[in-house]
Amino acid sequence: MGSKDLRGRENWQNQSGQKGGKAELQFFKVLQDHFEGSDFRIREKPREFKDIYSSVDLDPETLRQIYNPNETWSHGIIPDYAIDNLKTRKTIYTEVKSQDGWVEGKERKAGRGNVHERSNKYFTPGLQKILRDKGGISEEFLPFWVVFQGDIARDPKRVREISLWYEGIERHFLLWHDSTNPTQLLNHFDNYIAPILE
After folding, report:
1. Which of 88, 92, 119, 159 is deepest in the core (most CB within 10 A)?
2. Cβ distance 122 to 169 under 8 Å?
């Protein structure tokens, strides 16, 4: 990839990050208002997993074969949000993923990007165990919820990918098609996520 291509990619990533930040704030505000006077609260950027990778114990042979610096560092994940039930002390960790998409009036290439793929780390057994243990979520459910917002929630390619990945566990994702209307988000939370936290 040439320097011109890299510059264009950097600009695309900056724009994507700005759109993602707006989507997250919109999600947060809607749920924060919805939770007022209830047992639920929403926390931004929960830091309870910020060191989970750096604290992984490796076997001696693996340690012998890798670089081992003489310094400490933090390496983990910080989900976008944590939704807590203060009464039951259960928590579900939440990601809000916003991305451009192939919709009316746009070319197919508008759907480039892999924000939906990056959310798949939550399907890994190790992360699920850690999130489940910390959040008090039973084996019956996943310990996370992903909300896809913006054009990605209407892109015919991305919607099919996401729908296949979550087949049989549809309560754990939402394609928030019209993020100017909170009804779809609130209905999904009340019907599918709140019961996990009871």
Report:
1. 92
2. no
DSSP H helix total and E strand total for the chain: 6, 5
Residue 177, helix vs strand vs coil: coil
Per-domain residue ranges for the chain? 22-197
Exposure string of 115-142, with b = 16+ CB inside 10 Å and e = fewer, is: bbeebeebeeeebbebbbebbebeeebb
Q: Which ranges of 36-148 does DSSP label H, i.e. alpha helix?
A: 60-65, 115-118, 125-135
The answer regarding whether domain 22-197 maps to CATH 3.90.79.10 reads: no
Cα end-to-end distance, the chain, whole Å: 50
Q: pTM higher than 0.85 for the full model?
A: no
Residue with tokens 């780390």: 121
Beta bridge partners of 113: none
**10 Å Cβ neighbour count for 36?**
9
Measuring CA to CA, which residue among 97, 106, 105, 107 is closest to residue 161?
97
- Residue 103: the pLDDT is 55
What confidence tens digit (pLDDT) does each residue in 129-184 have?
Answer: 999 999 999 999 999 999 999 887 888 888 999 999 999 999 999 999 888 899 99
Strand ranges, E, within the chain: 40-44, 81-85, 90-98, 144-149, 173-176
**Distance, CA of 145 to CA of 166 (rounded, Å):** 11
